Structure formats: structure tokens, C-alpha cells
Sequence to fold (384 residues):
Amino acid sequence: MSSDDTLNCSDAAWMGMVSLFHNETRTSSQNTYLSYYISPMKLDANTMKEAIMQLIKDFKFNPVQVMDMVKLGIKTALKKDGIVEDRKAQLQIKIEADGSIKVFRERVVVAEVEEEERELTIEQAKTYTDNPELDQKIYKDVTPEEIIFTRIGAQAAAQTIKQQIKALEKERFYEKFQDKQGELLKAKVLRAVGDTVILDIDGTSVVLLPDGQIRGKMYAIGEEIFVLLRKIDKDSSGVLLDITQASTDFIESLLFKIIPELQEGKVYIDKIVRIPGKRSKVLVGSNDENVDPVWVFVWQKGSRIHTILTLLDGEKMDFIEVETSNDAKFVADALKPARITAVEIEWHKAYVELDEDQKALAIGKGASNIRLAGELTGYQIELK
Fold:
């Protein structure tokens, strides 16, 4: 999913940001809009100081970052409105502690001047500094008596700042999650938007796309769930998070979170097959002959399996011990919870005998149980 939905500034925050350049706002029933004056607007020290402090408060940016983006916005407006006629001019903006602004134009010391607005000779540079050298940059104070932006200039400045904020937010978003790939993350459901679900993960809004959702599950507002961050990527369109509840990787991560023996390497997971929201079958083994791997996952009085199933919102789960020497037993175990009478293996088929009252269990709802048993064992299973 793209991070654009989570990185766009909210209307309220955007209003606070552009208050630096616009002096009227109005609020409707659900959204806050910006209303621009056609008349010129004066940029004064108090407005500047208040706007900078508001940006720091709203976005929790480093003050240096905020100053840099505001300076860039001012440069844009100065050129857009023709206050600085040469749009290619290199400007330096200084914002004093009281919020007042100084504008400096950069000129380079050269042996022979070709562009008077951008260059000056060593002799001319002595007006500004002692002992100037070739290629030295000289900054001339060109601060207007009053800085007054038109509507167009103010809009250009505000747009520049908005772009800077989005870039910083994307970078901060990426840094927040880049070291969490492959981890299980706790999330809270905020709302559903169409076929997507918006989650809050550690204070950040993230989109759970349909292919990462458990089919048929109703995600209730305020519900706390776990999701697996499979991958994070960054491209020109933004930061992309691949989060899921529907993969077998999600099941594996959930089990690693709950079963300490998995983390310690005493038991292991050989294979997982799954129909999300309905049933999973997990093939497990032990590296210690004294440890029963199935019991480890179920635990005393079923306490661990109960926790797992609660987190899976009722999805069924069977644990089957790895069986390398007896394929018939492997197939019989894979058909749990049905009780199997006998299994006959012929090539890639397994013919299963069982009592009539066990057939429904062997097949499962929507044929889920027999289908997963076939995927787990690799045999085509036929019931007798």
C-alpha cells in the first residue's frame, strides 16, 4: 500500500501551516478550508514567529527543519511575486529570534563580470568584505522595507512548504518502520474505507489492503489486532507497506511470539497450510527427543492454543508432528480432528477408511479440512 493516505496533511494542520501566508480561514461542518484574500498580505515578525511555533507543535519536526522549509517558502514567494526580479538568483533568508526576516542575495567574486546581477569583481567585493578572493560568495542585504505577498505568491509559498512537509513525513514514516520488516505489529482498527481498513500502528495510520485481510472478517472500530509487516519499500510515489493477516507468514510470526520453545530452537515449524479465517494446519517437529512438539503448542489445559485461536478470531488450527517414516500415519494425522481407521498409500493417492460419523469432520466446512490435509501431505486424498 502507498503511504500517501497517511502522509497527506489534515485540513486542520494544513490551515495552521499556511496561516503564515494567509490571513483568513473558515470552517464548515466537517472540513476546514482555506480562504485567500485577493488583496496583498504583509508578512510581519509576529505572524512569522507564531507560524513557525505552530509548525513545530503540529508536526513535531526539528526546529531547524521547520526553519529551512519556511525559508524555502519565502524564497519561492519572493520570486513568484517579482520582489526579487531575477528568478534564478540565489537567495539566503535569515529569520531572527523575534521572527523578523532578512533577505540576502548571493553574488560570486570573479575576475571579469559577465552577469552583473550575479557576479562582482574583487574590487567591488571589497565593499562587503576585507580581502575577498575569486569564487568567494558575497551576500548583499536586499531586504525590502515591507514584505508583502500577493495571493499568488502566498499560494506558491504555501505549496512549497506543503511539499517539504510531505517529504519529511515520508522520510520519518520510512525510518519508523524500516527496521520492523518481518515483525508482528500491534494495531488498532480506526475505520473502514471502501474495501480497505485503516489501522493505527504506534500512532501512525496504515492501510490494510483487501489481500491482507482475513476474508469475511468484520473489522470493528477500536478492535486490537496483530499484523505482519512483510515488507517496506520507498519509491517516487511514497512509502509502501506490505502488511497482512492472511498469509502463512503471519501464522508463523504469531506462533513465534507465543511459543518460547520456538524462539529457543527446541521445536520448529516445518510447514504451514492455511485457508485464512477458516483453518490452518501446522507441521511441527522437535530437536529434543524428550519434547513433544504438539504438546508444546497446545500446552497445559490447552492454554497456548486457546490464546492463539483468540488472536485468530476463531480460526481453527491443527498441529501435526513431522512423520518421516510412515506416510499412512502422516495422512491420518493430517486429517485431524477426524478419527481415521486405516490409510492405504498408492503412488500419489491416499485412500482413507473411516466411520461414517467421521466423514464430515474429515471433509470440513467447505472441504477445508481435506483440502489442507492434501496440501500438507502432498497426497490426493479419497475417503472410503
